[in-house]
Each structure stands twice: as structure tokens, then as C-alpha cells.
Design goal:
Blueprint: H1 2-35, H2 40-44, H3 47-70, H4 74-79, E1 81-85, H5 93-107, H6 112-124, H7 131-136, E2 138-142
Antiparallel strand pairs: 1-2
Helix pairs in contact: 1-3, 3-5
Length: about 140
């Protein structure tokens, strides 16, 4: 249960850390979209898809860079957790990429049922792995 709570706190910290830069980038791209709205392709895109794509890209970049440099995000650093391969080895780039993409897909809210499955898996198994951990072959370790 302690690891579940720490992972939740780490997720909230990471979310808050990314909120300001994401908002700034969304504002920037919103202004650009408004300025070049005469192009038909931009008029055809919904604002929701446009903003979701920007947010997805920023968070993916944050997650990949954080894991590549520190094997953890800022939130996990604060609560004393680290991501490693299931066998305890350091993460390689492909593992980081797979874990990050699936994590963002599964916790973004677009697949709401995956959020519930992730929470149940982390709570229910001794290994405390989310779906993205199972897919990438990673685990969250205490520091």
C-alpha cells in the first residue's frame, strides 16, 4: 500500500510539474493556429485533438528525458522511487520508449478503464506493476 501511495503522489507531482510548460506550449500553438487558420487542414482539426496531441508530446518528452537521465521522474525522485528493468538492470532507450508511450496512453484519461486496471494491479500484486510496467518489463523500486 505504501508503494501505491508513493506512486500516486509521484504521479501528481509530475502532473503539476508539467502543467505550466504544457499550458505555455498550448497557448503558443493556439496563437499559431489562430494566425494561420486560413489553411484548410487546421480548420478541420478539432481543438481537443490538437491540444491533446501537444500535451501527449510534451509529457512523452518529459517522461523519456527523465527516465533516460535519472531512471525516474521528478515526482518519483521526491518520494524515493526509481524505475528499473524487472531484473534490476538500468533502463535502455527502447524500454524507456515503450514504457513511456504505454504509460501515457493508459493514464491519460482517454482509456479511463485502464486507469482503474492500473490501480488494481499496483494494489493487488506484490510486484506493484502497472500495465505499462508489464509491457516494458520494468518495475518501480524503492530508492
Amino acid at each position: 500500500m505504501e508503494l501505491f501511495i508513493k506512486r500516486g503522489i509521484a504521479f501528481l507531482i509530475d502532473y503539476m510539474v508539467m502543467l505550466l510548460p504544457t499550458s505555455i506550449v498550448i497557448l503558443f500553438f493556439g496563437v499559431i493556429k489562430w494566425l494561420i487558420s486560413i489553411l484548410p487542414i487546421l480548420g478541420g482539426l478539432s481543438d481537443f485533438i490538437w491540444l491533446a496531441g501537444i500535451s501527449f508530446s510534451i509529457y512523452l518528452f518529459y517522461e523519456i528525458i527523465s527516465l533516460a537521465l535519472f531512471s525516474r521522474t521528478f515526482g518519483k525522485m521526491v518520494v524515493g522511487l526509481k524505475i528499473k528493468k524487472a531484473n534490476g538492470e538500468r533502463l535502455d532507450f527502447l524500454t524507456i520508449l515503450i514504457r513511456s508511450v504505454f504509460k501515457i496512453l493508459f493514464v491519460s484519461g482517454y482509456l479511463f478503464w485502464m486507469i482503474i486496471i492500473n490501480m488494481l494491479l499496483v494494489l493487488g500484486y506484490n510486484e506493484h506493476k502497472s500495465v505499462h510496467d508489464w509491457i516494458a518489463g520494468t518495475s518501480v523500486w524503492r530508492n
